[in-house]
Amino acid sequence: MYVARATSRENGVGNGVGNGVGNGVGNGMAGTGKREVGADIQNKCGKCGDGTHVIVSITNGRIGKVECKQCNSQHRHRLTDAEKLMKPAKRASRRAAPTEPAGPLVEPDLTRPIRPYQISAVYAVGDRIDHQSFGTGIIERVMSPSKVQVYFSDGQKMLLQGRTP
User: On the CB side of 109, how many CA atoms lie within 13 Å of its CA?
Assistant: First the structure.
């Protein structure tokens, strides 16, 4: 029996035979171009190395699981190299990355000593603290009775305050 094979230029991906992409020739979806549960698809099996699979599940229009026709094992659908190329590129985020300030937002209160950080202590803006992991920092903002924003040399951190142990 003769099976018409389309070139990669004609259908966009692979040879179109049994891969569920392109013109649908030889994959149980002749002429539809749709991927359906129960349709044949080419997908390399990690267990036996065979390529012919049956689509088991589709979620949100994407093939979820396939079952190998040779060894009957099920696995996630792996995109072929051609399908990876057809995948749309990720769009860049419109939000700019937050920038860390070059220095603290407030001047440290040098009249007060550096205090070791304790979760039970209460701090005020300008207080200097010594944190076990982050080092010396300056209280920039009191966000709430239980949270403070602290400037450390490696960036800003939110720390808890006023908690009973």
Answer: 14
Question: Nearest Cα to 62, choosing from 97, 20, 104?
Answer: 20
Strand locations in the chain, DSSP E? 40-42, 52-59, 62-68, 74-76, 115-116, 128-131, 135-144, 147-152, 155-160
Question: For residues 14 and 12, what is the distance between their CA atoms, to the nearest angstrom?
Answer: 7
Q: Which residues face 150 on adjacent strands?
A: 139, 157
| pLDDT for residue 6 is more than 60 | no
- Radius of gyration of the chain from Cα atoms? 30
Give per-residue pLDDT as tens, 96-143.
Answer: 666 656 777 888 888 889 999 999 999 999 999 999 999 999 999 999
For residue 165, the one-letter residue type is: P
**How distant is the alpha carbon of residue 17 from its chain centre?**
32
Contact, 71 vs 53, CB < 8 A? no
Q: Where does the chain have alpha helices with state H? A: 8-11, 81-86
Instruction: Give the whole-angstrom CA distance, residue 77 versus residue 65.
Output: 5
Q: Is 139 helix (H, G, I), strand (E, B) or coil?
A: strand
Looking only at the bridges linking them, the beta strands covering 115-116 and 128-131 are parallel
Q: What are the φ and ψ backbone dihedral angles of 35, each rounded to 5 degrees?
A: -95, 125
